[in-house]
Design brief:
single chain; 404 residues; Immunoglobulin-like; 5-stranded mixed sheet; 20% helix; 38% strand
Length: 404
């Protein structure tokens, strides 16, 4: 009797196992290249031009956002190890005709901290026969084994000989890029691009700065006979402020990049990054005001906030807004004192409390060696008390007595 029962149990187990395999087989593995996931291959473009021997010259320009890579500590650096594969495919027969592999080491320490971004940009050059092509780009993070894919089609019916624009300035001998939401204070900047002059084309290049209302600046760019790379110094006219379009054109093709210029006479906020300004305002503004600025573009937000804080100036007889100046000082202080690992001070729990409430009347420090817990107790004149705990002694403090 027991024999038959055991046999039936074995048969039932086999049936359950078979069903489980069939069910699991219906699920597809997660793809990093899904439409809803972040792809660090942020910008992808190309130039296409005819060479003297009748072949095609193809230059692929790419930009990588490094914020999601796995950085390993090596000596005093945090490095990401990447491999970028460029596969050139003939569209007619779908066969690979060329491949280039680029190995990269991204050092997180060398990137501009004020940008709050980790960007790497470069280009690869190829020589091809005249055919229709597509380019597959496969980016692999060698530390985490994650990969991302992007694809572009090459239209050889029309040559593209003008590259993307790289716009930046120098501060303390460091190169700092200018973006739409990273405000730029200054009177001049650099604009780099490649332009491949084609045979029998003698038209020159022009650079324009314009906004939605008017052309603000124009300068002629002489064609270079001995190279294809251009580095143009652009001096801003007086009183330019807000969202500006920088355009380079040869009369037939053009490249445009939007930048955000802020007046050097009105540098009244602590950061160039509009996203950081917006997040700090979330701590201190009334809810209805914060909801309003969330809907604004960057230039409108800055103008609005400037007027808002002017209306709160406690002493209009002075040149500075004491209230805003205090907020600026608190922002700088928390970034110096409360930075935790790779988290900026203003993003930490202690930083948020300090920005809103200022310096506490007293701070008591406790250390429980048995539980491996460190604690800070902040007390204010208003009887407010905030308790922060570092539960692993890693230097990361969390607010534990309520929600801030």
């Amino acid at each position: 009797m027991s024999y038959f029962i055991i046999g039936e149990i074995i048969i039932i187990k086999k049936i359950v196992l078979t069903c489980l395999i069939l069910v699991l087989g219906c699920f597809k593995p997660l793809s990093i290249d899904s439409n809803n996931s972040f792809n660090p291959i942020q910008s992808l473009d190309y130039s296409l031009y005819e060479l003297d021997d009748g072949k095609l010259g193809l230059t692929i320009y790419y930009e990588i956002n490094g914020r999601q890579f796995f950085y390993k500590k090596e000596d005093d650096k945090y490095l990401a190890s990447l491999q970028v594969v460029f596969q050139i495919v003939n569209k007619d027969n779908l066969k690979e005709v060329d491949r280039k592999v680029v190995d990269l080491k991204l050092d997180k320490n060398i990137f501009d901290n004020s940008e709050k971004r980790v960007f790497y940009s470069d280009k690869v050059d190829l020589i091809l026969d005249k055919n229709l092509y597509s380019v597959n780009i496969d980016l692999l993070d060698l530390n985490s084994k994650r990969n991302w894919i992007k694809k572009i089609s090459i239209n050889n019916s029309e040559y593209k000989t003008l590259s993307q624009l790289e716009i930046y300035y120098f501060e303390d001998n460091q190169k700092k890029h200018i973006y739409e939401n990273i405000g730029f204070y200054g009177k001049e900047f650099q604009c780099d691009f490649d332009y491949i002059k084609q045979k029998d084309i003698n038209r020159g290049l022009n650079l324009y700065l314009f906004n939605k209302n008017d052309t603000l600046h124009h300068q002629d760019i002489p064609l270079l006979s001995d190279q294809n790379s251009y580095n143009i110094n652009v001096k801003l006219p007086e009183n330019i402020e807000g969202m500006i379009n920088c355009c380079v054109t040869d009369g037939k093709q053009k490249r445009v990049k939007r930048i955000f210029v802020r007046s050097t006479d009105k540098k009244d906020f602590w950061e160039n990054d509009s996203n950081v300004i917006k997040n700090i305002m979330r701590y201190v503004l009334p809810v209805n005001i914060y909801k309003d600025i969330k809907k604004m573009d960057d230039s409108d937000m800055i103008v609005y906030l400037r007027k808002y804080w002017d209306s709160l100036d406690p002493d209009e007889s002075t040149d500075i807004n004491e209230l805003l100046d205090e907020l600026n000082l608190r922002f700088k202080y928390v970034n110096l004192e409360f930075k935790e690992l790779r988290t900026e001070g203003w993003e930490t729990d202690r930083g948020r409390v300090y920005i809103v409430n200022g310096k506490p009347k007293s701070i008591n420090y406790e250390n429980n060696t048995q539980m491996n817990i460190k604690r800070e107790i902040w007390t204010y004149d208003s009887k407010k008390v905030f308790i922060f705990e570092d539960k692993n002694s890693f230097g990361r403090y969390y607010l534990v007595n309520g929600i801030f």
